RNA sequence: GGCCCCAUGGUCUAGUGGUCAGGACACCGCUCUUUCAAGGCGGUAACGGGGGUUCGACUCCCCCUGGGGCCA
């Protein structure tokens, strides 16, 4: 392959950025970065009905959030622009006229009804319902007349029934389709707009795209696009069709399987680096063991020949695990920032948190430590730090607070904490262990009831850390309350 | 329906004619420990079926089955 690599990601702004689309974008981007090539963003907004500014914004934001920047495209420009198909219509019209003038395409005046009728007829004869090329050899005079009368028409590409259309896909290998399989398909619709295949092929050739990396769902479009390239007299790019992403039921991943848009995943607390890493591993692998890759490593190691050719099921559990791994790598400050909106939303922290509160949250985050897999986990993990009164989990309270020794033990503990000079983790631990020993209890037998009294739950971060952070006052108050309520 | 693609544990995958079929997530034990999480150790679990080719097939070929895609 000679020349500089040029790849593109070409979404339609008709919805959110789907995880499948995001992975396609990622593979293109990684390939470009690995090869020192150019990554182009092209917006395929020829469907004016469904394209929206909002979708466009959402897609662009999502790509940036993932860290996928483009060298040419909207907002950054480039020498091959414009990068919105809606602004490239003249180009499609010119190419279509060129092909028609050159005898490689022709206007077809058959109406949708006529076509449907003939298709039905062919079907009932047991034949494949394909266009019968009726308008292909119309007398030039008749064509002129119909055109001048303004009769609605489409433009079709002339195709041959002879031979096979063959190409080598980088991930699938040799692919061959019998030429007869493809009829004289439409390249320009009756409203003057290009069809998807035509617009894409024209743009890819004019933008000098060298490698088309896209979803498997476009595999069967490829022969048609190859035919367009040929008619245009352009050299076709290399193709790499990556397998689709499926839901657990092996059907194409869709909304009913869960969150499928990058925007949604972001709102749900997934970290971009986890998302990127997970997506990279869906359909690509480096070796027999590596799982965690930084963006730099991905760029360095990515290659198309290690892309799988089989569909992959999206596994939210593994993504969650990976998110936890990346959460651990984030600084405490980062985690505070991530966690804050959730504390606010839960009403545990009032909205613009002041400096004191931020400091406190920071210490909570430190105490919670690696238990945080998702930012929102903070609520369940630490609500007791923020509430005035704990809500007891009935099972936990029943199991630990009703023990006969709890009342007396708490009473002594309250007194000793009151006079404890070194009210810190170490001092508290010493005190607690000492007290347990004195009373002939195992440390756990004292600790568990204390945990329930302070947090309401049977599980929590380390109890000495919790006590230290909660503060002497609150700890004593909660111990007393639990004692009165249960013991 | 036609054409195209695909088939290793529940999931993501390594494997490119001779491996005890490896790793990761999930799951289950054990361990550490004040609980949970994390960590450490260990475990259950796979080559869809049938034909070939070959001394030998997960690996190559064909058929079937199953899944997916595109077009209709």
Structure commentary:
Among the domains are: 89-242, Rossmann fold; 255-329, Orthogonal Bundle (Glutamyl-tRNA Synthetase, domain 2), CATH 1.10.1160; 388-486, Orthogonal Bundle (Arc Repressor Mutant, subunit A), CATH 1.10.10.350. Helices cover 48% and strands 9% of the residues. It contains 20 helices and eleven strands. The strands form five sheets. The protein has a three-stranded antiparallel β-sheet with strand order 3-4-7. It has a two-stranded parallel sheet with strand order 1-2. The radius of gyration is 32 Å and the shape is elongated. It starts with 5 loop residues before the first strand and ends with a helix. The structure holds one RNA strand of 72 nucleotides.
Question: Keyphrases for this structure?
Answer:
two-stranded parallel ribbon, elongated, 20 helices, single chain, Arc Repressor Mutant, subunit A, 487 residues, 9% strand, 3-stranded antiparallel sheet, Rossmann fold, Glutamyl-tRNA Synthetase, domain 2, mainly alpha, RNA-binding
